[in-house]
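Pilot study result, target chain (501 residues):
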Amino acid sequence: MKKLIFLLLWSLCLFGSLAHAGYAEREPACAPGQALEGGLCYNQCASGETGVGPVCFGKCPAGTTDNGAVCWGLDIQVRGTTNRGNGTIPTSCPAGTENQSGLCYQQCRSGYYGNGPVCWESTPAGWIDAGLWFWRWNWGIQTRGKGSYGRGAGSVPTSCTAGKANEAGLCYSACPAGATGLGPTCYAGCPSGYKNDGLTCRKDITTVKPSHGRGVGVTPPANDGYCNYVMPMTTKSGKDRLYSQTAFVGTHNAYSSVKDGYFYAQQTFDVQRQLEGGVRVINLDIHLKNNDVALCHEKCDGAPLINYGTSMKYLVDTLKVIKQFLDKNSNEIVTIVFESYVKNNVLVEQKFADAGLTNMVFKPGAVGISQMPTLRQMIQSNKRLVVLTQESADAGNLIKTEWDYFVENMYGFDFSLNNYSVTARNLPLNTPDRGFLLNHFGTVTSSLNAVRNNAVGVLGNRVFNESKTAAGRLPTVLLVDFYQLPFCEAFKTVKDINDSF
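Predicted structure:
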Protein backbone atom coordinates (compact mmCIF):
# COMPACT_ATOMS: atom_id res chain seq x y z
CA MET A 1 0.00 0.00 0.00
CA LYS A 2 2.84 2.41 0.83
CA LYS A 3 4.37 1.64 -2.56
CA LEU A 4 1.08 2.36 -4.30
CA ILE A 5 0.70 5.69 -2.47
CA PHE A 6 4.27 6.65 -3.38
CA LEU A 7 3.70 5.84 -7.04
CA LEU A 8 0.46 7.78 -7.01
CA LEU A 9 2.04 10.89 -5.49
CA TRP A 10 5.08 10.66 -7.81
CA SER A 11 2.91 10.34 -10.88
CA LEU A 12 0.60 13.20 -9.88
CA CYS A 13 3.61 15.47 -9.32
CA LEU A 14 5.12 14.45 -12.64
CA PHE A 15 2.00 14.92 -14.72
CA GLY A 16 1.14 18.10 -12.87
CA SER A 17 4.52 19.62 -13.65
CA LEU A 18 4.34 18.62 -17.31
CA ALA A 19 0.79 19.84 -17.80
CA HIS A 20 2.13 23.38 -17.90
CA ALA A 21 5.52 22.64 -19.44
CA GLY A 22 4.50 24.17 -22.75
CA TYR A 23 5.10 21.29 -25.16
CA ALA A 24 3.52 22.21 -28.44
CA GLU A 25 1.57 19.83 -30.62
CA ARG A 26 3.91 20.30 -33.56
CA GLU A 27 6.10 22.94 -35.12
CA PRO A 28 5.04 25.62 -35.65
CA ALA A 29 2.67 25.47 -32.70
CA CYS A 30 2.55 29.15 -31.88
CA ALA A 31 0.09 31.82 -32.87
CA PRO A 32 0.33 33.29 -36.40
CA GLY A 33 3.30 35.64 -36.62
CA GLN A 34 5.14 33.80 -33.86
CA ALA A 35 7.98 31.29 -33.89
CA LEU A 36 8.80 28.47 -31.46
CA GLU A 37 12.33 28.91 -30.10
CA GLY A 38 13.73 27.27 -26.99
CA GLY A 39 10.29 26.02 -26.00
CA LEU A 40 8.70 29.50 -26.04
CA CYS A 41 6.73 31.45 -28.64
CA TYR A 42 8.24 34.77 -29.75
CA ASN A 43 7.15 37.32 -32.33
CA GLN A 44 8.87 36.42 -35.58
CA CYS A 45 11.84 38.52 -36.59
CA ALA A 46 11.94 40.30 -39.93
CA SER A 47 13.50 38.63 -42.96
CA GLY A 48 17.27 38.49 -42.57
CA GLU A 49 17.13 38.92 -38.80
CA THR A 50 18.00 36.26 -36.23
CA GLY A 51 16.04 35.74 -33.05
CA VAL A 52 17.76 35.05 -29.74
CA GLY A 53 15.31 35.03 -26.88
CA PRO A 54 13.45 38.36 -26.67
CA VAL A 55 15.79 40.12 -29.14
CA CYS A 56 15.94 40.21 -32.95
CA PHE A 57 19.45 40.80 -34.27
CA GLY A 58 20.05 42.30 -37.70
CA LYS A 59 22.72 41.38 -40.21
CA CYS A 60 26.31 42.51 -39.84
CA PRO A 61 27.66 45.02 -42.35
CA ALA A 62 29.49 43.63 -45.38
CA GLY A 63 33.08 42.78 -44.61
CA THR A 64 32.43 41.99 -40.95
CA THR A 65 32.00 38.71 -39.12
CA ASP A 66 29.00 37.89 -36.94
CA ASN A 67 30.36 37.38 -33.43
CA GLY A 68 27.08 37.03 -31.62
CA ALA A 69 26.03 40.38 -30.23
CA VAL A 70 28.75 42.27 -32.12
CA CYS A 71 30.07 42.49 -35.66
CA TRP A 72 33.82 42.28 -36.02
CA GLY A 73 36.04 43.03 -38.98
CA LEU A 74 39.16 44.76 -40.30
CA ASP A 75 39.40 47.55 -42.86
CA ILE A 76 42.84 47.31 -44.47
CA GLN A 77 43.93 49.90 -47.02
CA VAL A 78 47.14 49.88 -49.05
CA ARG A 79 49.08 53.09 -48.48
CA GLY A 80 49.54 55.35 -51.51
CA THR A 81 53.12 55.65 -52.84
CA THR A 82 55.29 58.04 -54.86
CA ASN A 83 58.77 57.47 -56.27
CA ARG A 84 61.45 59.89 -55.12
CA GLY A 85 64.40 58.48 -57.02
CA ASN A 86 67.50 56.61 -55.96
CA GLY A 87 69.41 57.81 -52.94
CA THR A 88 72.81 59.49 -53.26
CA ILE A 89 75.79 59.37 -50.97
CA PRO A 90 75.94 62.46 -48.67
CA THR A 91 78.62 65.06 -49.54
CA SER A 92 77.79 67.97 -47.25
CA CYS A 93 79.82 68.44 -44.09
CA PRO A 94 78.69 70.24 -40.95
CA ALA A 95 79.58 73.89 -40.36
CA GLY A 96 83.23 74.37 -39.24
CA THR A 97 84.31 71.37 -41.27
CA GLU A 98 85.33 70.79 -44.85
CA ASN A 99 85.02 67.88 -47.25
CA GLN A 100 88.30 66.55 -48.36
CA SER A 101 88.60 63.37 -50.35
CA GLY A 102 85.07 62.38 -49.23
CA LEU A 103 85.72 62.92 -45.51
CA CYS A 104 84.79 65.79 -43.25
CA TYR A 105 87.71 67.44 -41.35
CA GLN A 106 87.84 70.35 -38.93
CA GLN A 107 88.74 73.51 -40.79
CA CYS A 108 92.35 74.67 -40.19
CA ARG A 109 92.98 77.86 -38.30
CA SER A 110 94.01 80.98 -40.12
CA GLY A 111 97.40 80.74 -41.82
CA TYR A 112 97.10 76.97 -42.29
CA TYR A 113 95.61 74.75 -44.96
CA GLY A 114 94.38 71.20 -44.65
CA ASN A 115 95.71 68.07 -46.25
CA GLY A 116 93.93 65.06 -44.84
CA PRO A 117 94.32 64.84 -41.08
CA VAL A 118 97.11 67.51 -40.96
CA CYS A 119 96.93 71.27 -41.09
CA TRP A 120 100.04 72.75 -42.78
CA GLU A 121 101.36 76.24 -42.50
CA SER A 122 100.56 78.42 -45.50
CA THR A 123 103.53 79.77 -47.51
CA PRO A 124 104.70 83.09 -46.08
CA ALA A 125 105.24 85.99 -48.40
CA GLY A 126 108.59 85.79 -50.22
CA TRP A 127 109.05 82.10 -49.51
CA ILE A 128 108.62 79.12 -51.78
CA ASP A 129 106.79 75.93 -50.65
CA ALA A 130 109.13 72.98 -50.92
CA GLY A 131 106.84 70.35 -49.34
CA LEU A 132 107.96 69.96 -45.77
CA TRP A 133 109.86 73.29 -45.68
CA PHE A 134 110.06 76.71 -47.24
CA TRP A 135 113.07 78.27 -49.07
CA ARG A 136 114.04 81.61 -50.55
CA TRP A 137 117.03 83.33 -52.19
CA ASN A 138 118.63 85.74 -49.86
CA TRP A 139 122.25 86.10 -50.91
CA GLY A 140 122.11 82.40 -51.02
CA ILE A 141 119.47 79.72 -50.36
CA GLN A 142 117.68 80.14 -47.09
CA THR A 143 115.26 77.40 -45.70
CA ARG A 144 112.98 76.86 -42.73
CA GLY A 145 110.63 74.11 -41.61
CA LYS A 146 106.89 74.20 -42.43
CA GLY A 147 104.63 74.41 -39.36
CA SER A 148 101.85 71.78 -38.94
CA TYR A 149 99.42 70.20 -36.47
CA GLY A 150 96.96 67.38 -36.54
CA ARG A 151 93.22 67.95 -36.88
CA GLY A 152 91.98 64.43 -36.24
CA ALA A 153 90.66 61.66 -38.39
CA GLY A 154 88.02 62.68 -40.88
CA SER A 155 84.43 61.51 -40.58
CA VAL A 156 82.01 60.30 -43.27
CA PRO A 157 79.61 63.03 -44.41
CA THR A 158 76.04 62.65 -43.10
CA SER A 159 74.47 65.88 -44.14
CA CYS A 160 72.42 66.20 -47.31
CA THR A 161 71.83 69.26 -49.39
CA ALA A 162 68.74 71.39 -48.86
CA GLY A 163 65.53 69.57 -49.77
CA LYS A 164 67.14 66.19 -49.15
CA ALA A 165 66.88 63.86 -46.16
CA ASN A 166 69.37 61.28 -44.89
CA GLU A 167 67.73 57.86 -44.61
CA ALA A 168 69.74 54.70 -44.06
CA GLY A 169 72.94 56.56 -45.02
CA LEU A 170 71.67 57.89 -48.34
CA CYS A 171 70.21 61.23 -49.36
CA TYR A 172 66.68 61.17 -50.76
CA SER A 173 64.28 63.90 -51.75
CA ALA A 174 62.08 64.78 -48.80
CA CYS A 175 58.58 63.15 -48.78
CA PRO A 176 55.40 65.25 -48.78
CA ALA A 177 53.94 66.21 -45.41
CA GLY A 178 52.37 63.21 -43.65
CA ALA A 179 54.13 60.67 -45.85
CA THR A 180 56.85 58.30 -44.71
CA GLY A 181 59.98 57.51 -46.70
CA LEU A 182 61.27 54.01 -47.17
CA GLY A 183 64.13 53.83 -49.63
CA PRO A 184 63.17 55.27 -53.01
CA THR A 185 59.43 55.27 -52.10
CA CYS A 186 57.27 57.69 -50.18
CA TYR A 187 54.23 56.10 -48.47
CA ALA A 188 51.21 58.28 -47.83
CA GLY A 189 50.01 58.70 -44.27
CA CYS A 190 47.08 56.67 -42.85
CA PRO A 191 43.60 58.18 -42.53
CA SER A 192 42.46 59.27 -39.10
CA GLY A 193 41.55 56.30 -36.92
CA TYR A 194 43.72 53.84 -38.85
CA LYS A 195 46.85 52.20 -37.52
CA ASN A 196 50.03 52.26 -39.59
CA ASP A 197 51.07 48.67 -40.29
CA GLY A 198 53.94 49.61 -42.59
CA LEU A 199 52.71 48.96 -46.12
CA THR A 200 49.03 49.09 -45.10
CA CYS A 201 46.67 51.02 -42.86
CA ARG A 202 44.43 48.97 -40.51
CA LYS A 203 41.27 49.87 -38.67
CA ASP A 204 39.44 47.48 -36.33
CA ILE A 205 35.70 47.54 -37.03
CA THR A 206 33.77 46.29 -33.99
CA THR A 207 30.20 47.44 -33.83
CA VAL A 208 27.21 46.38 -31.77
CA LYS A 209 24.91 44.36 -33.98
CA PRO A 210 21.68 46.19 -34.82
CA SER A 211 18.86 44.78 -32.71
CA HIS A 212 15.41 45.42 -31.36
CA GLY A 213 13.19 43.75 -28.79
CA ARG A 214 10.37 41.44 -29.83
CA GLY A 215 8.65 40.84 -26.53
CA VAL A 216 8.86 38.23 -23.84
CA GLY A 217 8.42 34.62 -24.95
CA VAL A 218 5.19 32.91 -23.96
CA THR A 219 4.39 29.27 -23.33
CA PRO A 220 3.12 27.54 -26.49
CA PRO A 221 -0.44 26.19 -26.57
CA ALA A 222 -0.92 22.93 -24.69
CA ASN A 223 -0.10 19.83 -26.75
CA ASP A 224 -3.39 18.51 -28.07
CA GLY A 225 -1.94 15.31 -29.53
CA TYR A 226 -2.43 16.21 -33.19
CA CYS A 227 0.79 15.72 -35.11
CA ASN A 228 1.38 16.30 -38.81
CA TYR A 229 1.79 12.99 -40.62
CA VAL A 230 1.24 12.40 -44.33
CA MET A 231 1.83 8.84 -45.50
CA PRO A 232 4.13 9.02 -48.54
CA MET A 233 2.73 7.08 -51.50
CA THR A 234 5.89 6.98 -53.60
CA THR A 235 9.60 6.50 -53.01
CA LYS A 236 12.14 9.20 -53.79
CA SER A 237 12.61 7.58 -57.22
CA GLY A 238 8.88 8.06 -57.93
CA LYS A 239 7.85 4.39 -57.68
CA ASP A 240 4.81 3.22 -55.72
CA ARG A 241 5.93 2.71 -52.14
CA LEU A 242 5.75 -0.74 -50.57
CA TYR A 243 4.38 -1.32 -47.09
CA SER A 244 7.88 -2.55 -46.17
CA GLN A 245 9.34 0.83 -47.25
CA THR A 246 7.02 2.90 -45.09
CA ALA A 247 7.81 4.10 -41.58
CA PHE A 248 5.12 4.71 -38.97
CA VAL A 249 4.87 5.99 -35.41
CA GLY A 250 3.37 3.35 -33.15
CA THR A 251 2.05 3.65 -29.61
CA HIS A 252 3.24 1.20 -26.98
CA ASN A 253 0.30 -0.05 -24.87
CA ALA A 254 -1.94 2.30 -26.82
CA TYR A 255 -4.96 1.59 -24.60
CA SER A 256 -3.11 2.61 -21.41
CA SER A 257 -3.80 6.34 -21.42
CA VAL A 258 -4.30 9.14 -18.96
CA LYS A 259 -7.54 9.89 -20.84
CA ASP A 260 -8.90 6.43 -19.95
CA GLY A 261 -7.96 6.72 -16.29
CA TYR A 262 -4.80 4.62 -16.14
CA PHE A 263 -2.60 5.50 -13.19
CA TYR A 264 0.56 4.04 -14.68
CA ALA A 265 -0.17 5.21 -18.21
CA GLN A 266 1.98 4.97 -21.33
CA GLN A 267 0.01 7.46 -23.41
CA THR A 268 -1.72 10.76 -22.74
CA PHE A 269 -4.58 10.45 -25.25
CA ASP A 270 -6.93 7.62 -26.14
CA VAL A 271 -6.69 5.50 -29.29
CA GLN A 272 -9.08 7.72 -31.24
CA ARG A 273 -6.92 10.80 -30.64
CA GLN A 274 -3.78 8.77 -31.38
CA LEU A 275 -5.08 7.81 -34.81
CA GLU A 276 -6.31 11.32 -35.54
CA GLY A 277 -2.94 12.63 -34.37
CA GLY A 278 -0.91 10.62 -36.88
CA VAL A 279 -0.25 7.27 -35.13
CA ARG A 280 -0.61 4.33 -37.51
CA VAL A 281 0.58 1.34 -35.46
CA ILE A 282 -1.46 0.39 -32.39
CA ASN A 283 0.13 -1.94 -29.83
CA LEU A 284 -2.38 -3.68 -27.52
CA ASP A 285 -1.97 -6.12 -24.62
CA ILE A 286 -4.95 -8.50 -24.69
CA HIS A 287 -6.08 -10.92 -21.99
CA LEU A 288 -8.95 -13.34 -21.45
CA LYS A 289 -11.33 -11.79 -18.92
CA ASN A 290 -15.00 -12.54 -18.24
CA ASN A 291 -15.04 -14.80 -21.33
CA ASP A 292 -14.10 -11.75 -23.40
CA VAL A 293 -10.92 -10.16 -24.71
CA ALA A 294 -9.88 -7.31 -22.41
CA LEU A 295 -7.14 -4.68 -22.65
CA CYS A 296 -4.87 -4.76 -19.61
CA HIS A 297 -1.22 -4.38 -18.69
CA GLU A 298 0.34 -7.66 -17.48
CA LYS A 299 -2.99 -8.98 -16.15
CA CYS A 300 -6.56 -7.88 -15.67
CA ASP A 301 -6.76 -8.74 -11.99
CA GLY A 302 -5.89 -6.44 -9.12
CA ALA A 303 -6.81 -2.87 -8.38
CA PRO A 304 -8.07 -0.53 -11.11
CA LEU A 305 -5.76 2.23 -12.38
CA ILE A 306 -2.69 -0.02 -12.24
CA ASN A 307 -3.44 -2.85 -14.70
CA TYR A 308 -6.46 -1.21 -16.30
CA GLY A 309 -8.23 2.12 -16.24
CA THR A 310 -11.05 3.33 -14.09
CA SER A 311 -13.22 0.76 -15.89
CA MET A 312 -12.35 -2.42 -17.78
CA LYS A 313 -11.84 -1.83 -21.52
CA TYR A 314 -12.50 -4.54 -24.07
CA LEU A 315 -10.87 -5.16 -27.44
CA VAL A 316 -14.04 -4.85 -29.49
CA ASP A 317 -14.57 -1.25 -28.39
CA THR A 318 -11.07 -0.23 -29.54
CA LEU A 319 -11.56 -2.12 -32.82
CA LYS A 320 -14.72 -0.10 -33.43
CA VAL A 321 -12.71 3.09 -32.97
CA ILE A 322 -10.21 1.85 -35.55
CA LYS A 323 -13.07 0.97 -37.91
CA GLN A 324 -14.53 4.47 -37.61
CA PHE A 325 -11.15 6.01 -38.36
CA LEU A 326 -10.57 3.84 -41.45
CA ASP A 327 -14.09 4.60 -42.72
CA LYS A 328 -13.49 8.35 -42.39
CA ASN A 329 -9.96 8.20 -43.85
CA SER A 330 -10.08 6.04 -46.97
CA ASN A 331 -6.39 6.55 -47.84
CA GLU A 332 -4.95 5.54 -44.46
CA ILE A 333 -3.45 2.19 -43.41
CA VAL A 334 -3.36 0.99 -39.80
CA THR A 335 -1.40 -1.87 -38.24
CA ILE A 336 -2.31 -3.62 -34.97
CA VAL A 337 0.36 -5.51 -33.01
CA PHE A 338 -0.95 -7.72 -30.20
CA GLU A 339 0.97 -8.79 -27.14
CA SER A 340 -1.53 -11.57 -26.50
CA TYR A 341 -2.25 -13.80 -23.54
CA VAL A 342 -5.56 -15.09 -24.87
CA LYS A 343 -4.37 -18.08 -26.94
CA ASN A 344 -7.72 -18.42 -28.67
CA ASN A 345 -7.65 -17.20 -32.25
CA VAL A 346 -11.32 -17.94 -32.83
CA LEU A 347 -12.37 -15.66 -29.97
CA VAL A 348 -9.96 -12.90 -30.95
CA GLU A 349 -10.93 -12.97 -34.65
CA GLN A 350 -14.60 -12.88 -33.68
CA LYS A 351 -13.99 -9.42 -32.21
CA PHE A 352 -12.94 -8.19 -35.65
CA ALA A 353 -16.19 -9.51 -37.05
CA ASP A 354 -18.13 -7.83 -34.26
CA ALA A 355 -16.43 -4.52 -35.08
CA GLY A 356 -17.06 -4.90 -38.83
CA LEU A 357 -13.35 -5.06 -39.67
CA THR A 358 -13.00 -8.55 -41.12
CA ASN A 359 -13.16 -7.46 -44.75
CA MET A 360 -10.60 -4.69 -44.23
CA VAL A 361 -7.82 -6.96 -42.93
CA PHE A 362 -4.99 -7.66 -45.35
CA LYS A 363 -3.96 -11.32 -45.32
CA PRO A 364 -0.47 -12.00 -46.71
CA GLY A 365 -0.24 -15.10 -48.86
CA ALA A 366 3.15 -16.18 -47.50
CA VAL A 367 5.76 -15.47 -44.87
CA GLY A 368 8.05 -12.45 -45.30
CA ILE A 369 7.73 -8.67 -45.41
CA SER A 370 8.28 -8.83 -49.18
CA GLN A 371 4.81 -10.38 -49.43
CA MET A 372 3.29 -7.05 -48.43
CA PRO A 373 2.04 -5.05 -51.41
CA THR A 374 2.31 -1.36 -52.22
CA LEU A 375 0.33 1.17 -50.22
CA ARG A 376 -1.67 2.03 -53.32
CA GLN A 377 -2.69 -1.61 -53.82
CA MET A 378 -3.82 -1.88 -50.19
CA ILE A 379 -5.87 1.31 -50.48
CA GLN A 380 -7.46 0.38 -53.82
CA SER A 381 -8.47 -3.06 -52.51
CA ASN A 382 -9.59 -1.53 -49.17
CA LYS A 383 -7.37 -4.04 -47.35
CA ARG A 384 -6.00 -1.31 -45.10
CA LEU A 385 -5.65 -3.10 -41.76
CA VAL A 386 -2.64 -5.32 -40.93
CA VAL A 387 -3.01 -7.45 -37.79
CA LEU A 388 -0.03 -9.20 -36.18
CA THR A 389 0.32 -11.09 -32.91
CA GLN A 390 3.28 -12.22 -30.84
CA GLU A 391 1.30 -15.29 -29.72
CA SER A 392 1.19 -17.93 -32.45
CA ALA A 393 -1.86 -19.58 -30.83
CA ASP A 394 -3.87 -16.47 -31.72
CA ALA A 395 -2.79 -16.52 -35.37
CA GLY A 396 -5.34 -17.68 -37.92
CA ASN A 397 -7.11 -16.52 -41.04
CA LEU A 398 -7.02 -12.81 -40.19
CA ILE A 399 -4.29 -12.50 -37.59
CA LYS A 400 -0.72 -13.37 -38.59
CA THR A 401 2.27 -14.16 -36.40
CA GLU A 402 4.40 -11.04 -36.05
CA TRP A 403 7.70 -12.91 -36.26
CA ASP A 404 6.85 -14.02 -39.82
CA TYR A 405 7.01 -10.37 -40.90
CA PHE A 406 8.94 -8.36 -38.30
CA VAL A 407 11.78 -8.65 -35.83
CA GLU A 408 11.91 -6.61 -32.62
CA ASN A 409 14.60 -5.42 -30.28
CA MET A 410 14.30 -5.94 -26.54
CA TYR A 411 11.64 -3.66 -25.10
CA GLY A 412 12.47 -1.06 -22.50
CA PHE A 413 14.86 1.85 -22.83
CA ASP A 414 17.40 2.36 -20.07
CA PHE A 415 17.03 5.62 -18.13
CA SER A 416 20.78 6.15 -18.55
CA LEU A 417 21.45 9.14 -20.80
CA ASN A 418 23.96 7.14 -22.86
CA ASN A 419 22.31 3.74 -23.31
CA TYR A 420 21.23 3.45 -26.94
CA SER A 421 21.90 -0.29 -27.31
CA VAL A 422 19.69 -2.36 -29.61
CA THR A 423 19.57 -6.13 -28.98
CA ALA A 424 17.33 -8.80 -30.50
CA ARG A 425 14.18 -9.89 -28.68
CA ASN A 426 12.96 -12.84 -30.73
CA LEU A 427 14.82 -13.43 -34.00
CA PRO A 428 18.24 -12.07 -34.94
CA LEU A 429 17.76 -8.48 -36.02
CA ASN A 430 19.34 -9.21 -39.40
CA THR A 431 16.90 -12.05 -40.23
CA PRO A 432 16.22 -11.79 -43.99
CA ASP A 433 12.85 -10.66 -45.35
CA ARG A 434 11.67 -9.13 -42.10
CA GLY A 435 10.71 -5.61 -41.21
CA PHE A 436 12.14 -4.06 -38.06
CA LEU A 437 9.97 -2.79 -35.20
CA LEU A 438 11.99 -0.65 -32.81
CA ASN A 439 10.79 -0.70 -29.21
CA HIS A 440 11.70 2.72 -27.87
CA PHE A 441 10.14 3.46 -24.51
CA GLY A 442 11.40 3.84 -20.98
CA THR A 443 11.87 0.87 -18.71
CA VAL A 444 10.26 3.18 -16.17
CA THR A 445 7.57 4.94 -18.18
CA SER A 446 6.83 8.61 -17.69
CA SER A 447 6.06 11.59 -19.84
CA LEU A 448 9.28 13.15 -18.55
CA ASN A 449 11.25 10.25 -20.02
CA ALA A 450 9.38 10.62 -23.30
CA VAL A 451 10.34 14.28 -23.61
CA ARG A 452 13.95 13.18 -23.74
CA ASN A 453 13.67 9.76 -25.38
CA ASN A 454 11.42 10.79 -28.30
CA ALA A 455 13.52 13.84 -29.20
CA VAL A 456 15.24 13.70 -32.58
CA GLY A 457 18.65 13.79 -30.92
CA VAL A 458 17.95 10.54 -29.04
CA LEU A 459 15.42 8.63 -31.19
CA GLY A 460 17.05 9.72 -34.44
CA ASN A 461 20.47 8.69 -33.15
CA ARG A 462 19.19 5.30 -32.07
CA VAL A 463 17.45 4.76 -35.43
CA PHE A 464 20.19 5.86 -37.83
CA ASN A 465 23.18 4.65 -35.86
CA GLU A 466 22.63 1.82 -33.37
CA SER A 467 19.55 0.29 -35.05
CA LYS A 468 20.92 0.40 -38.58
CA THR A 469 24.22 -1.05 -37.41
CA ALA A 470 22.56 -3.85 -35.42
CA ALA A 471 20.00 -4.87 -38.08
CA GLY A 472 21.66 -3.79 -41.30
CA ARG A 473 18.59 -1.70 -42.13
CA LEU A 474 16.40 1.01 -40.65
CA PRO A 475 13.36 0.26 -38.49
CA THR A 476 10.02 1.20 -40.03
CA VAL A 477 7.88 1.02 -36.88
CA LEU A 478 8.86 3.22 -33.94
CA LEU A 479 6.93 2.07 -30.88
CA VAL A 480 7.00 4.90 -28.31
CA ASP A 481 5.34 6.16 -25.15
CA PHE A 482 3.60 9.56 -25.07
CA TYR A 483 3.93 9.80 -28.84
CA GLN A 484 3.27 13.55 -29.02
CA LEU A 485 6.20 14.53 -26.78
CA PRO A 486 8.26 16.55 -27.33
CA PHE A 487 6.77 18.63 -30.17
CA CYS A 488 5.82 15.48 -32.15
CA GLU A 489 9.51 14.83 -32.81
CA ALA A 490 9.00 11.07 -33.32
CA PHE A 491 7.20 12.02 -36.54
CA LYS A 492 10.22 13.98 -37.68
CA THR A 493 12.37 10.86 -37.32
CA VAL A 494 9.73 8.84 -39.21
CA LYS A 495 9.84 11.40 -42.02
CA ASP A 496 13.64 11.09 -42.15
CA ILE A 497 13.28 7.29 -42.47
CA ASN A 498 10.68 7.60 -45.23
CA ASP A 499 12.83 10.13 -47.07
CA SER A 500 15.66 7.57 -47.15
CA PHE A 501 13.66 5.13 -49.33
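One observation from the pilot: Confidence is low (pLDDT under 50) at residues 1-28. A full batch analysis is planned for the follow-on phase.
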